Amino acid sequence: MKCILLAASAAAALSAPAAAQTPPSPSPAGQPAVTRPAPTPPAPVDPRVAALRDAALKDEVGYDIVEGLTTEVGQRLAGTEAEARARAWGAAKLKALGFKNVRIETYQMPVWVRGAEEAEIVSPFPQKLKLAALGNSGSTGAQGLTADLAVFPSMTEFVNAPAVAVRGKIVYIGNSMQPTQDGSSYGANGPARFTGPAMAAAKGAAAIVIRSIGTDTHRLPHTGVTNFPAGTAAIPAAALAVPDAEQIERMAKRGKPIRMHLVLTPQQTGSHESGNVIAEVPGSDPGAGIVLIGGHLDSWDLATGAIDDASGVAITTAAAKRILDSGKRPRRTIRVVWFGAEEVGGFGGEDYAKKHGTERHAIAAESDFGADRVWRFETTLPAGAKPISDRLASALAPLGIVRGTGGAGDGSDIEATIKTGVAGVDLNQSGLRYFDVHHTPDDTLDRVDPAQLQQNVAAWATMLAVVADAPEEIGSVTRP
Amino acid sequence: MKCILLAASAAAALSAPAAAQTPPSPSPAGQPAVTRPAPTPPAPVDPRVAALRDAALKDEVGYDIVEGLTTEVGQRLAGTEAEARARAWGAAKLKALGFKNVRIETYQMPVWVRGAEEAEIVSPFPQKLKLAALGNSGSTGAQGLTADLAVFPSMTEFVNAPAVAVRGKIVYIGNSMQPTQDGSSYGANGPARFTGPAMAAAKGAAAIVIRSIGTDTHRLPHTGVTNFPAGTAAIPAAALAVPDAEQIERMAKRGKPIRMHLVLTPQQTGSHESGNVIAEVPGSDPGAGIVLIGGHLDSWDLATGAIDDASGVAITTAAAKRILDSGKRPRRTIRVVWFGAEEVGGFGGEDYAKKHGTERHAIAAESDFGADRVWRFETTLPAGAKPISDRLASALAPLGIVRGTGGAGDGSDIEATIKTGVAGVDLNQSGLRYFDVHHTPDDTLDRVDPAQLQQNVAAWATMLAVVADAPEEIGSVTRP
Predict the structure, then answer these.
(1) Nearest CA in chain A to B302
(2) Could you confirm whether domain A116-269 is CATH 3.40.50.300?
(3) If contacts are CB pairs under 8 Å, which of residues 54-83 in chain B contact chain A?
(4) Distance between CA A286 and CA A441 in Å, rounded?
(5) For residues B379 and B388, what is the distance between their CA atoms, to the nearest angstrom?
(6) Which Gene3D superfamilies does the record match to this protein (chains A, B) (predicted)?
(7) What ipTM was reported for this prediction?
């Protein structure tokens, strides 16, 4: 999961296509109630869809994929030999599951790798702290650097600080991120990571350490990519574990200058191969457009990426497998993509759109927000396809999934495809636990609740059964 | 906290002095109920004791000590300059709080220090694992060693394994430790760490990695001391984080040999200075014996030791401070000791007993099981002092503390003193969260719940008020 939630909330602010379905309250305060129009009866649920959905609640394929990929491959940083092993593992697994047209499509991408990572308070209270370099961080060199901290409680204070307060120092930026159901606190607090380092470089800082963009209190820092604009030299940039960030804030309250020694030796290693793994459930009507689903295969290097995003590839693949095994060829081809190199810049999604952007896609949908239960769905469908949303609402309701009023098309891997005018369907997962673990060494198999994973598979199987067989045409949409 | 809970459960098994107070059920199934004897009325609570207790629920001194020691000193491994800084910090703090006879008593001890720590599965599923060397671990040398794993699900299977199954291999020992209120699962599962490495060395293993003796699922290994008998060369010995241990167990189920590369470069650095910090609330009756309380000042090197055991020194000190400030000199001198070098072998407790064992002690009591609420008290008092336990029962009941039927005298720092025949009073804390964090990098200030810490201070202040002023003689006890 990258900064897609920023895009999501921006989209939500700009568009509420379903809002018109809910009339404003007819009973202003102090006035007699007006009779509401009779509610539209829910769309009937195709018994075949209901049966597929209910059977998927006992799915075992999804967990098997997460368990296998995380155990037999482990971490799979984009562009490394580990990601190549993951592609081979994925292609073999997809073939063994009976998918058609299984292939790997490769591309080249710049690769950054982690080095040594040490931080130590030199004075006034000598002690070591835990941190992890951010993707694209510069290096301090093996000897490290020593400088005073410029402590900012949040991004706002840092943005407003003059360069003179920062020059030659190590910038510290705090945050007060809390868990949110829709993950929107990531969008609110993430800029300290997304753009803080570039801004610190522009203000002349020697380096930057941020409080992890996370909601846990373990000594496991949250890494993640940052970007420096062309022409700006990357400064050393890292995230402190939350307890270590709190330690700095306690020290700062004591009022004495805080001096830190920092060693970060990551490297840009040049261009290397990455790739997407693609598989299909062939449809009967080539003209009806492809249903594109998937997640990303690469993970950060600190953990086995069980929730980010082995679960996403597992959920979407297990759902497609249920259609494959259902005995009825779907109208539309379902294409499952295990995208490469999402974490470090969305290279897999870009490559897919470059190679397949001219093919007709009916919808694109991604699972990249962990493995906790789906609580809401949202769609961005062209006008004539609205009955599909009504049928989704009826079919998903027994899974505890409500209909949202925002747009859809979340997921950085499908972003480039969505931008070409393809409709989106989002199955939103609960974000309440996600940022406890996101991009930390704790993103391991034990974080996946098998029952919640099954609910996800059931939601996706339901969505596929409804959308892939929908008789309506699903044409291009104009994105808000 | 070391292996004291083994001793505690052994003591509980051997003695139940208060059990006679609870008659066996007079109503066997199917028979008419027999009238129980009228219960003994509870001992009255001295209003002064009640007032001290209730005021202590708003204590701020305890949290201030934990916060200060963990922030301003941080980790304080025994025998290092960090522990020396902690002693200086402690002596200054105790003087500032107004304690009398504040002094540092030093001794020499052997010091082991951590080095590099890396583990990597070479085949069949290459990936890095997280682990931490155990105290007194041998070194692999900088180049490390590579060997096949001999996987044992638990200590029992390992104990029963012939040497030929182990020779030249890296032993893995699992466990299935669960949280327990009284911490007894530490005693049940701890031997894999306490004696597993020595046994592995005796069987000819190249090294040993155990599943952490812990109840969490974070990628933070639990260190802790192990011991090799004289004449046995220390082999490399480490604890894997629980998710990493589970990863090995999943790999093992696939049936292929697992090859590991292990780098551990800790060192024994010879003899260095450690010490105890001692402070007193002087009593009015030197002949009545000292009330010895405290916790240990040293911590493991991976964290700031907030619950192990900054909380113990803070709780006991804050409680003694309440007696100091109460305006009434206690009958007995209360001696607070911040013991050094507990984690690595109880050197501070041994030195204290050597230097002070001939002084008359009324009781000894230690707080070394975190910062969660006290739920039970137990005593080992000589016959004539039994009314003290009755008064404790009445005075502690409003804090939700029940009277236990086992013996007392837990705490490795007071073990040597208790062995001389000194009575013990235990205020048992809940162990349900303790082993999530014990000896891991997560033992930081955020683990301390201020309200539960205050309940501890109130319990200790109550105990001190009752015991230090008790008119009864508290003579020597024969330990079970």
Answers:
(1) A128
(2) no
(3) 67, 71-75, 82
(4) 43
(5) 9
(6) 3.50.30.30, Zn peptidases (3.40.630.10)
(7) 0.90
The helix-helix angle for B450-468 and B61-72 (nearest 10°) equals 120
Write out chain B residues lying below 8 Å of A249, CB-based: none
B441 touches chain A (CB under 8 A): yes
**pLDDT tens, position by position, B446-474:** 999 999 999 999 999 999 999 999 999 99
Name the residue in chain B with its Cα closest to that of A248.
Answer: B71
Question: What torsion do the CA atoms of B457, B458, B460, B464 make, to the nearest 10 degrees?
Answer: 130
- A128 neighbourhood in chain B, CB within 8 Å: 74-75
Domain locations in chain A as residue ranges: 47-107+273-468, 116-269
Q: How far apart are CA A205 and CA A172, in angstroms?
A: 10
DSSP letter at A445 equals G
Residue A25 scores a pLDDT above 90: no
Q: How far apart are CA B374 and CA B452, in angstroms?
A: 8
Give pLDDT, residue B33. 55
Identify the residue whose tokens are 């697992």: B258
Q: How far apart are CA A134 and CA A149, in angstroms?
A: 18
Point out which residues pair with A380 in neighbouring strands: A424
Query: Which CATH number is associated with domain A47-107+273-468?
Result: 3.40.630.10
Distance of alpha carbon B214 from the chain centroid:
14
Active site residues of B: 342
CA-to-CA dists, residue A408 to A191, A232, A389, A480, angstroms: 22, 34, 12, 10
Q: Do B75 and A128 touch (CB under 8 A)?
A: yes
Question: Which of A85, A219, A304 is closest, CB to CB, to B220?
Answer: A219
Q: Which residues of B touch A130 (CB under 8 A)?
A: 441
State the first-to-last Cα distance of chain B, in angstroms, to the nearest integer.
22
